[in-house]
Specification:
This protein is of the alpha+beta class. 40% of the residues lie in helices and 29% in strands.
Length: 273
């Protein structure tokens, strides 16, 4: 019979790629067991090397140390282990979903920054985004309450934007309410239990588009007048509806800067009723 090999802690560290401190930690937790010889040195066995392989593998499955300690105990039924693995798969899938949502939020913010850089203070023709209407609220502050309620119940709905709706009359903007919109294309990042297809959708209306930096959450009539003048110069007339999206904000100690996406639906001159 082959003589069993014995390893000093430095040998084990080189073999398994763990630091001495990590090995001492696992030993302290009772996961591996060194035997102290008469010479005062502590030795590890081939069995400890194997146990460490199992531990390293379990750590790569994101098992906690407590879960690993449970794993190395005796008399565990296979069913117990299978249930643990199924639970861990569910946890990892939930984490993947959270990470994907985080990336989606980051991409939305990058898109907002690109629009600011490209369109701040400029007028162009652009369609109203294709989106699902999650809620139609009395005003911006009512929509904020709705946002908190919906996003706490359904993961992913926090990616909704606040579209304030105005009517244009006699050079003035009259607030007609606020819509919470989720852009189409974000469906994979919304909790699967929420049916977006049951929501109404925006119409792809041709609009004069502009980005404005503002100290107020809502636009002023001067911005709408500027956009109406530009529309007229391009051979379009406003339909009388105006949208302001609170796209992103830079919050300071004393002053906040709100970047507003402004959409003014238009039709070619001569086609209005």
């Amino acid at each position: 019979m082959d003589k069993k090999k014995e390893y000093l802690i430095g040998d084990v560290s080189r073999i398994v790629g763990l630091s001495r401190d990590a090995l001492r930690f696992y030993e302290k937790k009772g996961i591996i067991h060194a035997k102290k010889k008469e010479n005062g040195y502590r030795y590890f066995s081939d069995e400890d090397i194997y146990r460490l392989m199992c531990i390293v593998y379990r750590r790569k499955m994101n098992d906690s140390l407590e879960e690993i300690k449970d794993f190395v105990k005796d008399d565990k039924p296979v069913a117990h282990m299978r249930q643990h693995l199924e639970r861990r798969i569910g946890e990892e899938e939930e984490e993947i979903c959270r990470r994907r949502q985080t990336i989606a939020r980051l991409k939305l913010s990058i898109h907002d920054m690109e629009n600011i850089e490209a369109y701040e203070g400029k007028c162009v023709l652009k369609e109203l985004p294709a989106a699902y209407i999650l809620a139609t609220c009395e005003d911006l502050y009512d929509s904020l309450r709705q946002w908190f309620s919906m996003s706490s119940e359904v993961s992913g709905l926090d990616m909704a934007y606040f579209y304030n709706v105005f009517s244009m009359r006699n050079g003035m903007l009259e607030n007609e309410g606020t819509q919470l919109l989720i852009y189409k294309g974000l469906e994979p990042f919304i909790n699967s239990g929420f049916d977006l297809s049951a929501c109404l959708s925006t119409e792809p209306l041709p609009c004069v588009y502009r980005v404005e930096a503002s100290k107020d959450l809502l636009p002023d009539a001067a911005a709408a007048e500027t956009m109406a003048d530009w529309a007229s110069s391009q051979g379009f007339v406003p339909t009388g509806v105006f949208y302001s999206n609170n796209m992103t904000s830079f919050l300071g100690e004393d002053t906040n800067i709100y970047y507003l996406e402004l959409y003014m639906p238009v039709i070619p001159a001569g086609k209005q009723k």
